[in-house]
Every structure is written in structure tokens, then in C-alpha cells.
Design brief:
Keywords: Hydrolase. InterPro entries: Peptidyl-Arg-deiminase_porph, TAT_signal. The protein is 29% helix and 19% strand. It is α/β, with parallel strands linked by helices and 384 residues long. It has a single domain, classed as 5-stranded Propeller (L-arginine/glycine Amidinotransferase, Chain A).
């Protein structure tokens, strides 16, 4: 499989198409420490074996972790709007569970001002950007009161963005919570992997079986490392999309697990023919024919995506993903994009799929122009 995404990003494109050309100079210096080359990964202490596994995301949470963006070299004139969207997400989640937001000391005052008193702002864990799903630790439970965390060796999505601070976030968050921490035997991001908590994962080859993350590693080796890290036994692979966005097509923008053996796929309009629409249809087909780790046939629900001609944003790189929702205690937090009919239908679908939870739909258009969503900027800490 060719790794044509390994080269530098094309200038002038958003996160959906490589937001951070301005951040690459610093990224080059950071990659030696943060990218975890193959030899170092091979020697890394493996994630704890046994009963520890990453639970499905609708379990009870102790808190949600987030990060505060403050870099104009990354966001430019969009920074203020993106900060407002991050604050809106944090305040909304804080209605349902504690939110801990990592901020650099120089921008903590603004974070506290916009987020309000219900959000805890920490300055002891510095950050480069807001994508806590990718830089943060992946927490695991053992079903008997035990909690630990795994780091996925974040390397700026293949050294495409400065990440010297973000490369250390996973370990620092784990230290703050006082739980054991290990490094996985691969490079990846939390948004690149979905887990059902019962042994099954799904992921895109474009993101993980890629020389910009895991040079010299085969799909079989990467799958083994993923299963060890997540406490799983099976990976459902999708081809994904290479080189069109900084993540190389994270799975959490399209397909999610609802329960063991049950998944959801955001479907494009029948008239949509771009690479992401084709990718979504392929993901649905693969899941519909797949079995879970226990051998049962996957049940797959559909979540209809919006009409990009009817959403508020006219940015060609805008990510309008309802599927990039975040499940917290008692609520589902999702985006809404201005296609009134699709927004209403998505709310109804999520309410049906998550009975007993409040569905909150937020206007996060500024964050969406950066190619990300609510799930991308959150990381759950499950209750042990």
C-alpha cells in the first residue's frame, strides 16, 4: 500500500486539508522526541495484559479531559472563534460531568473567563492544540475497580504539526490522575480507533497502516499492538482516505460503536460522490458483513449526514459530522450545521439510539472549519 500521504502538507489548507503548515518548523524539531521510531517502540514496555481493556464510551465517567488552543501560528485569525467553540463544548459537558481543561499559563485567564466556574482549568499540563482525543491518554478499566492509561505516542499526525507539548499530554494526564501509564507499541491517535469494550475495534488503514506513523510495521503487527493496548482481540479495518486531511481519515468522524456488536455509520446523500462519501459507503458495507469478536453478526444503524449545500459554512474543508458526537454522563453532545431538516433528523436518531440521555446540539462551525468536531476535542476518563 503506497504511503502518498507521507510528504509535507500542502500550504494554505485547513486541518481537514492540513491546517498547520505554519506549525511544521517546530514539528521537525519535535519529531525526534515524539514520533517513537520503530526501534524505540519495539523496546517499549507493552501495555498491561490481562483484564484491562478500554470500555465503550457510554460507561459512567469520572470526568472529561479537554485542551485549550492558544496558538496563532496554528489557527491564525480563526483562534478566537475556535476558543469560543471549545468553551461552549466544555460548559455544555460540565452540566453533566466534571470537565478538566489543560491550558498554557499565558492563556489560562481567557480560558477561565470563557468557560466559567463550572470548568476546571489546569496549567500544569501544557498543550500545543485542542485535540485531546488524539493527544490524551486512553483510559482502561479491569471491571474490578482498577484503572490505568495507555499513550498512543502522538506524533502530530505523522509530523504534520508542532507537537512537543502534546506528545507529553497523555503521560502527564495519567500522572495527574495517579494511574499507571504505559506506551503502546505503535503510533496513533484516539480518534483513529473505535472500541466496543468487548473485544472489537475498528480503524482505517489510511491512518494507522501508514509510514508517517508506523514505518516498517505491517498491518498484522499494528493490529496486534492495537489489541494489546485496547484489551481487544479483533480489528475491523476500513481502507480510509489518504492524504486529504491531516488525520488521514479518522474513523470517529464516520463510524462509531453503539454497543458490543452494534455500530453506527454516518451516511452521505445519494448524490454525494467525493472520496469521503465513497469511504462512508464502504465502511457501512464492511461493517454490515462483519462479525464482532464474539462471532455475532454486526448490526449497523445509519445516521444521515447533512446536505453540504444547505449548511451554514461555505468552507470547502468543513467537517459536518453528526457521528463525531461525545457521550457523557446523561447526555449526547453533537454538532448541528444549519441544514434544519438534517439537524432535526440527527437529533431524533441520536435520541432513539441513546434513550434516557439528553441530546445537546451545538453550533461549532468555527471548530468545524478546522476539520474537527466534539469527539475530537474530548477524552473521557471512565469510572473504575
Amino acid at each position: 500500500m503506497s504511503d502518498h500521504a507521507d510528504g509535507p502538507p500542502r500550504p494554505g489548507m485547513d486541518r481537514r486539508r492540513f491546517l498547520t503548515a505554519a506549525g511544521l518548523a517546530a514539528a521537525g524539531a519535535a519529531v525526534t522526541a515524539a514520533a517513537a521510531p520503530a526501534a524505540a517502540r519495539a523496546a517499549a514496555r507493552p501495555a498491561a495484559a490481562g483484564a484491562f481493556r478500554v470500555p465503550i464510551e457510554d460507561v459512567r465517567h469520572t470526568r472529561t479531559w479537554m485542551a485549550w488552543p492558544d496558538s496563532t501560528s496554528i489557527w491564525g485569525s480563526k483562534l478566537s472563534g475556535v476558543q469560543s467553540d471549545i468553551a461552549l463544548i466544555a460548559r455544555t459537558i460540565a452540566k453533566y460531568e466534571p470537565v478538566y481543561l489543560c491550558a498554557n499559563s499565558g492563556s489560562a485567564a481567557r480560558a477561565r473567563s470563557l468557560c466559567g466556574s463550572t470548568v476546571t482549568v489546569l496549567t500544569s499540563i501544557p498543550v500545543d492544540d485542542c485535540w485531546m482525543r488524539d493527544s490524551g491518554p486512553v483510559f482502561r478499566t479491569d471491571g474490578a475497580g482498577g484503572l490505568d492509561a495507555v499513550g498512543l505516542n502522538f506524533n502530530g499526525w505523522g509530523n504534520r504539526q508542532t507537537h512537543a507539548k502534546d506528545a507529553l499530554v497523555a503521560g502527564r494526564v495519567a500522572a495527574y490522575t495517579g494511574v499507571p501509564f504505559t506506551g503502546a507499541a505503535l503510533v496513533g491517535e484516539g480518534g483513529a480507533v473505535e472500541q466496543d469494550g468487548a473485544g472489537t475495534l475498528m480503524a482505517t488503514r489510511s491512518s494507522l497502516v501508514n509510514g508517517n506513523r508506523n514505518p516498517g510495521m505491517s498491518q498484522t503487527q499494528i493490529e496486534a499492538a492495537l489489541c494489546t493496548a485496547y484489551g481487544a482481540s479483533k480489528v475491523i479495518w476500513f481502507d480510509g482516505v489518504r492524504g486529504q486531511d491531516i488525520t488521514d481519515d479518522h474513523v470517529d468522524a464516520t463510524s462509531r460503536f453503539l454497543a458490543p456488536g452494534r455500530a453506527l455509520v454516518q451516511m452521505p446523500l445519494a448524490t454525494d460522490t467525493d472520496v469521503y462519501a465513497k469511504d462512508a459507503r464502504q465502511q457501512y458495507q464492511i461493517l454490515s458483513a462483519a462479525t464482532a469478536a464474539n462471532g455475532t453478526r454486526m448490526a449497523v444503524d445509519q445516521l444521515q449526514g447533512p446536505d453540504y449545500n444547505k449548511i451554514r459554512s461555505t468552507n470547502p474543508d468543513f467537517l459536518a459530522s453528526y457521528a463525531n458526537y461525545y457521550v457523557c454522563n446523561g447526555a449526547v453532545i453533537s454538532g448541528q450545521f444549519g441544514d434544519t431538516r438534517a439537524d432535526t433528523a440527527a437529533r431524533a436518531t441520536l435520541a432513539r439510539l441513546f434513550p434516557g440521555r439528553v441530546v445537546e446540539q451545538l453550533n461549532i462551525d468555527r471548530l468545524g472549519t478546522g476539520g474537527g468536531g466534539i469527539h475530537c476535542v474530548t477524552q473521557q476518563q471512565p469510572a473504575a
